[in-house]
Design brief:
Length: about 575
């Protein structure tokens, strides 16, 4: 009895391939299935992970940044003036086209992820061994900004893609673009396109002309670099680059781009449109914050910035300086205009002042005053070089002591002659005084220029046993939950020996637990006060923006001595 069995049929592909290829083909097919299953599993994993994020957050205004001084006191209100969500109808079409051309030329074509660009970036990242190339679309940037995804890794990129696809399925292209413009940071404390329009141009978003639209889009790449209030030429260059991209993308013609370039752009005074209390110190804090954000990949939503500023000392220093200068102006025969007496819009001709206090050991800036009235003049005089005169003597003494020479207090020329101008210049530069220097014996008399910031750091170097601290304005940054996401690491470098630093400090006058210097330059166009306290070094300058004689040396010294006494220790 025979048993019938079906005859096995040979698969058609085996009939056409050599026998030695059968095994590899089967293995390849099985591997393909395994990879497919793994890919589906991975996609499902990231889909589940992405589903835990609340998509409603995309359409919300990000929380404002809050600033605090070193003692935890809030430096300013959150500054919500001008912060609101704009609708798509309020956004000029020119801005939409500019944004697409500059950031994502295929925005209206892809589904949220530009896979061609992503493939190119992936190949480049593998080749370079890092993750610097992201091929981010506007939707991907929106996802990253909304959910504060800072880490650069394949896991983060995969999650970002999953979130991007969810956002694209939930929101229309117009909604995505609008939410993007409403969420991002534009520099100078402006969050969202509406506050940017008001901060820079004093207008609403809908009132912006094409040149202003292109400039705002240009800011996006580097808010701390391209803010027109900080660097107008750079902002103009970014506007021009944006217009060039629009030409390349076919949105406008070259003739149209040239016509846009000649449209007048009028900036408003910093702080005027937003309603924030203007401050030289806070502007420095914001500039440093923007640098830290870019370097540390920090987003701004709800962060708490703990500054190095001491609001009590800042107010005290500013008050006493204002009193001293007002007393000088009140003297009989004062030959110059007084504060507020000049015509509106005219260049200020009244006497100005600037001051910086640096924590001697750490370089933390405790106070910064860039002028008498920020609302009247945004020019920060702590960065302006002025003649030093006899205020340079401590550094002449430091150079001589460093070379083992005799320090002769009150006789800087004799002290400096022992080592020469070149040695004095070299030592001063190590302490943070960058000149320019006069390469003659007049250098010992103070023929050198420096900024109040440089003088504060230089004085701190002498008070810190010869170690030069690096000035900074931010001590730490916390996220909305209070987690520290950035902490400053104070830096200092040896500039001269401890004994030489001590001898340099000895030429300063001792009073009430502090060491100080007060005096005017030989031309009586600049007056300096140096004050080395128990923990901080303060450099103060008084003079005119356009140098002119202030008053005779005797009157200035009396006024400055009284000022130092009022500050105490």
């Amino acid at each position: 009895m025979s048993t019938w069995r079906p005859i096995a049929k040979t698969p058609f592909w085996k009939r056409y391939l050599p026998a030695w290829l059968h095994g590899p083909v089967v293995l390849a097919f099985q591997s393909l299935i395994a990879v497919g299953v793994f890919g589906l599993g991975l996609a499902f994993f990231y889909f589940i992970l992405a589903s835990k994020f609340d998509l409603d957050e995309v359409a919300k205004l990000p929380r404002a940044t809050t600033f605090f001084d070193r003692h935890g006191k809030e430096v300013e209100a959150p500054g919500d003036s001008g912060r609101r969500m704009v609708e798509r109808g309020e956004i000029p079409d020119f801005m939409v086209e500019a944004l697409a051309a500059r950031e994502d030329a295929r925005f209206f074509e892809h589904g949220g992820v530009d896979f061609r660009g992503l493939a190119r970036a992936t190949v480049r990242n593998v080749k370079d061994g890092d993750f610097t190339q992201g091929a981010s679309t506007l939707t991907m940037q929106l996802a990253r900004n909304t959910y504060e995804m800072r880490a650069k890794s394949l896991h983060r990129k995969a999650l970002e893609i999953a979130l991007t696809l969810r956002i694209e399925s939930r929101y229309s292209k117009d909604e995505i673009l609008t939410n993007y413009l409403n969420r991002i940071y534009y520099g100078s404390g402006a969050y969202g396109v509406e506050q940017a329009a008001r901060t820079y141009f004093g207008k609403t978003t809908s009132q912006l002309h094409p040149g202003e639209c292109a400039m705002i889009v240009g800011i996006i790449r580097g808010p701390h670099i391209y803010s027109p209030l900080r660097n107008y030429p750079a902002a103009v260059e970014q506007r021009n680059q944006t217009l060039a991209r629009m030409v390349d993308a076919g949105f406008i013609t070259e003739e149209r781009a040239e016509a846009v370039k000649v449209l007048e752009i009028r900036l408003v005074k910093e702080g005027q449109a937003s309603g924030r209390r203007p401050s030289y110190a806070l502007r420095q804090v914001r500039w440093e914050l923007e640098k830290v954000m870019e370097r540390e990949n920090i987003t701004l939503s709800g962060i708490r910035v703990h500054t190095t500023l001491d609001l009590g000392w800042q107010a005290r220093l500013e008050s006493e300086l204002a009193r001293a200068v007002a007393n000088l102006e009140a003297e009989k025969g004062w030959p110059h205009p007084k504060l507020g007496a000049h015509e509106a819009g005219a260049e200020a001709e009244y006497v100005q002042f600037a001051a910086v206090t640096t924590e001697t050991k750490t370089g933390a800036v405790l106070a910064l005053i860039g002028g008498r009235d920020f609302a009247d003049s945004r020019f920060d005089r702590t960065r302006s070089k002025r003649d030093l005169g006899s205020a340079f003597e401590p550094f002449v003494a430091a150079a001589a002591a460093e070379r083992g020479k005799l320090v002769l207090p009150g006789r800087p020329v004799q002290t400096g002659r022992q080592i020469g101008a070149a040695e004095v210049e070299r030592l001063a530069k190590r302490c943070g005084i960058n000149g320019p220097f006069l390469a003659t014996e007049d250098l010992f008399r103070g023929a050198v220029a420096a900024t109040p910031m440089e003088m504060s750091v230089g004085l701190a170097t002498l008070g810190n046993k010869g170690r030069k601290p690096k000035p900074h304005f931010i001590s730490r940054i916390e996220d909305i939950e209070g987690k520290v996401i950035y902490r400053a690491k104070p830096e200092n470098a040896k500039a001269l020996g401890e004994q030489a630093a001590q001898e340099a400090v000895s030429v300063l006058k001792s009073r009430s637990g502090t060491r100080s210097f007060t005096g005017a330059t030989g031309s009586e166009r600049d007056a300096w006060t140096l004050r080395l306290g128990p923990s901080g070094s303060t450099a103060i300058w008084i003079g005119f923006d356009q140098p002119k004689r202030i008053a005779d040396d005797k009157r200035l010294n009396a006024l400055l001595d009284e000022f130092v006494e009022r500050l105490g220790n």
